[in-house]
Amino acid sequence: xxxxxxxxxxxxxxxxxxxxxxxxxxxxxxxxxxxxxxxxxxxxxxxxxxxxxxxxxxxxxxxxxxxxxxxxxxxxxxxxxxxxxxxxxxxxxxxxxxxxxxxxxxxxxxxxxxxxxxxxxxxxxxxxxxxxxxxxxxxxxxxxxxxxxxxxxxxxxxxxxxxxxxxxxxxxxxxxxxxxxxxxxxxxxxxxxxxxxxxxxxxxxxxxxxxxxxxxxxxxxxxxxxxxxxxxxxxxxxxxxxxxxxxxxxxxxxxxxxxxxxxxxxxxxxxxxxxxxxx
Amino acid sequence: xxxxxxxxxxxxxxxxxxxxxxxxxxxxxxxxxxxxxxxxxxxxxxxxxxxxxxxxxxxxxxxxxxxxxxxxxxxxxxxxxxxxxxxxxxxxxxxxxxxxxxxxxxxxxxxxxxxxxxxxxxxxxxxxxxxxxxxxxxxxxxxxxxxxxxxxxxxxxxxxxxxxxxxxxxxxxxxxxxxxxxxxxxxxxxxxxxxxxxxxxxxxxxxxxxxxxxxxxxxxxxxxxxxxxxxxxxxxxxxxxxxxxxxxxxxxxxxxxxxxxxxxxxxxxxxxxxxxxxxxxxxxxxxxxxxxxxx
Lengths: 279, 295
Fold this sequence. Notes:
The structure holds 2 protein chains of 2 kinds. Chain A has one domain (4-14, 22-274): Rossmann fold (3-Layer(aba) Sandwich), CATH 3.40.50.300. Helices cover 37% and strands 23% of the residues of chain A. Chain A has 11 helices and 10 strands. The radius of gyration of chain A is 19 Å and the shape is globular. Chain A starts with a helix and ends in a 5-residue tail after the last helix. Chain B has helices spanning 9-51, 57-61, 74-105, 110-122, 127-141, 148-172, 176-184, 189-217, 221-226, 246-254, 259-294. Helices cover 75% and strands 0% of the residues of chain B. The radius of gyration of chain B is 25 Å and the shape is globular. Chain B is mainly alpha-helical. The mean pLDDT of chain B is 88. Chain B has 2 domains: 9-54; 60-294, MetI-like fold (Orthogonal Bundle). Classes of the chains: A alpha/beta, B mainly alpha. At the A-B interface, helix 3, helix 4 and helix 7 of A face helix 7 and helix 8 of B.
């Protein structure tokens, strides 16, 4: 049953059924809790009725074919979509119990707490040091020069970049390799001490070795942070994540422990996707 | 098709035809370039032959006189420089701020589109119209008189649309990923604009600004219509002082019957050209300087 028509029927069945597969049967604390989230760009509906509980200190991967809404959903978690005109959100996203779309929420403070790394590395055209220091400066997080330097070093160490760049902190970030630039963007996000890190296909433009370094980094970082990673690469999802959510046509089809998602998914569509039959 | 040739006869003929067209276009473009540059060079050499002998320190620092040989240009040169300085001081902050508002803050609604279309139209309005506006608004209604300030305000209005348009162009060229990166760290809109977007857009903004001011320095019509004097025997000594500028002085000399004054006009043109080239060189230097700092 891998032809699109049958899959659509399956989706219809999914939508009408209770969301029994949308929450893995685990008793864990919840960091991010989305409730019946709908999202549209103008008149185009991109996400329909997404409900998910994401747990702290684990890596959660969002997988699904292009255009399935996984990146859009990721960007609702730090309200990055707000800067695109004409977007609309319905429903709730609770982070530590607070609705980030509720009244009185300061988007600036939210984004400080929920860091983001983009698909294409986007270092500022400044020195390596200033790239990291920027977030600290704008958030007023470093009082003295030495404090600032300390935090910059700490962030670069966390992103496993310190040894490579410690002798050229004042050189332009644009002179670094692609993989280094992406780790710089991770260090930059970590510098402002978020507790959630959103990664939107962070390794899709990198070579295998650079990709491996990012994956090792993600593995280390989950001790301290809640990590949500969007990926096109099924092997990557299987390697780095503890939980996996499969998105399809703007809906969350299935969400479970990664090992279960890849070995015994409950839904036929999920199985078709993870075994490479479409996507 | 034979085994040795890459293409058969028909294809080869088509390729030959395309190469001929390629070459013909190249030749045409070169011809046009030579024509354009040639006439410019002829013009400058002509002016140079007429005016070079009049160029001297005395000419640059002197004041107008009834005798052509004694006449200098300092009153007009200083007038031009002062007017441009004040024009820039007025137009650049307002123009850059307007562009930032339109590009970064305003919502994309009907109002924004109406403003946009109007700015584009204003950039194409003939300068004499600005002169008449300046006469009515600054000279008469606001009581500035025929002063440096009135002239500079009029020119500021004239170049404002150009500055707004070029600044918006420069802001638009900043990659959206830079803005996203900044917002994702918890930056406010203002922090993003001030620390990330403006520094990247700066070379483009500076280039647009200097090109706009270069346009203003050559303007004659709006200043004549607000009544900038055509015979001033002194350098302006402040914002409220009467003044004249280089193009007006050149126009004045050209319209005299005596041949000696024609030489003065040619020398005045050389001074104006030198001033323009200096400003354009500054624009290029600033652009390269800030671009190097980025990479």
